[in-house]
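From the pipeline queue, job 12 of 40. The input is one protein chain; the requested action is below.

Action: predict structure.
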Amino acid sequence: MVVQVVLVHGIRTSATMWRAQVAHLRERDIPVVAVDLPGHGSRMTEEYSLERALATIDEAVMDAAARGPVLLAGHSMGGLVSIEYVGREDPPPVAGFIAASCTAIPRGIGLRTYRLLARGFDALPDRGMWLTKNMLYLTLPQETRADFGAGGYAFDTQDEALRSLSVLDLLAALRRIQVPLWFINGQYDQLRLNERLFQRVAPHAELIVVPRTSHLVTAMRPTVFNALLDVAIATVEASATTPLAESRPSRET
């Protein structure tokens, strides 16, 4: 059966952030769906809640699992919520999982500071769009620069979405994840804070750090990220007949 890929976006952005990955997978005839979480993208008018976000991921995964083994990939907030989802006590039908740019525990002073900064950014003229556009211009290649904002920015959702992350028990969820697991971070990603802790809790996971890359690893180095997707797909394909290795070493790409 053909591996099915489900992609979950990060905060403020939408399914359009995955355009480079969707195009790459479709060129390979790999079925792929990039979801919009509540309050984001095509669902901007909906109210966000953690329960609705988990339900959105579950609906996409269950639908894809009817056609083949599922590789789930989540970025940033989408990755954190996906850790909670994959690590349920009753495991969902996910055959492999990429957690990108999300190796940080969203609690305490760190989360409070992030929420405060987001509110301050939102209070700027034009909600800080001039700064966002300049940052994307300076850091992203031309071919992916427009992807993060193409579905609109979920300004009115971000604080509730950030607040909801505080209830996640990520370490407990990680301990329950038994499928092939990759942590993919940019070298300069601010959410690398707990990556070693995450790897100790999930020792079978592989930590991949992409050099010269920020938090927006999927768009800053799309060719590298697409190659890592290909590795994950091949691993999921092989895992149907090959037992999961007990551990995988960290490495830099």
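Job complete. The longest strand covers residues 70-75.
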